[in-house]
Amino acid sequence: MTASVRATTGAPTPAPPAALSPSAPARLRALGPNWYAAVMGTAIVPAAGTTLPVRPPHAVLEGVWTLAAALLLVLLVARAGHWLRHRDRARAQLLDPEVAPFYGCLAMALLAVGGGALALRVPGAVGIDAALWTAGTAVGLVATVAVPYLMIARHDVRPGSASPVWLLPVVAPMVSAALGPPLAAQLPAGQPRQTMLLGSFALFGMSLLATLLILPLVFARLLHDGPLPVPMTPLLFLVLGPLGQSATALGNLADVEPGSFGALSVLYGVPVLGFALLWLALSAALVVRAARQGMRFSLTWWAFTFPVGTCVTGAAAVWRHTGADAFGWLATGLYALLLAAWATAAVRTLGGLISGALLAAR
Length: 362
Prior knowledge:
Layout: H1 3-9, H2 26-29, H3 36-49, H4 58-85, H5 87-94, H6 103-120, H7 125-153, H8 167-184, H9 191-225, H10 240-256, H11 258-292, H12 306-322, H13 325-355
Helix pairs in contact: 3-4, 3-6, 3-12, 3-13, 4-5, 4-6, 6-7, 6-8, 7-8, 8-9, 8-10, 9-10, 10-11, 10-12, 11-12, 12-13
């Protein structure tokens, strides 16, 4: 079983007895950066809900956002404890090419919770978003450089091992690009706002070009080596992330500067969302195949949430700038899929935590 499967499924991995600290809970040792995906998947539910033609009740969306914010706080504390008590394990995760990319999830969790606060206008929303956007963008930029550096200089990356998880660190700047414009709208007109908008556009380009380097490798692996291992199959949905998020980014830029980005957001968003639907259908077919082969629940199922949510916000952005009902209905349909995926992943994760299966000692 690969390290990627271990990181996302919670399957036990034997650890040398000397590596275990008798004073530290075994469950804390098993906590990996992949757990931030649960925060991302939860935070996107209320954020995407605010973009729909018909919005769900605000109180419900705010309640889900509060849950996401609480999860983020708990995980930040737990992961800090992981680094303090299990530094050997934390270093091993950084040096594993199939686990290190999940550090991009930390950046996106911070960004998603901050962006949701502003979208919902919770008390202190601007300050919360400014702090989390700044922190998330900084972490994302570090991950975007550090993880590829480690893969080149330190990791043992074998031919044919390309995985959708490689997208996680490089898509983090795209999340910053998508959530920067609403925050920029809070700044004074002129140089401050222009600087942030252009910075968001630069982050868009950084992430997009890096994604274009990785996607052919992932598809080539599928063609030459066949489907991913059954437990990893849900990770195919990660490809939807940069697609939907990039359409969202340009749409949000057009909301603030329609003269500069309005036409571009539509010319880019429509064909990219078309490809996203193609990938969604292909991935869903492979997931059905994996389910028939006995795919069981694991943390990889959170890949069904945030990436689909970005397609919701991307379709909603095209709807806002074209008025085409088809994209409004598309956003609504994808949101229904997001809700079903989130509810399933959340319930199964809670059950796995109660039973201890997802945090078995490693």
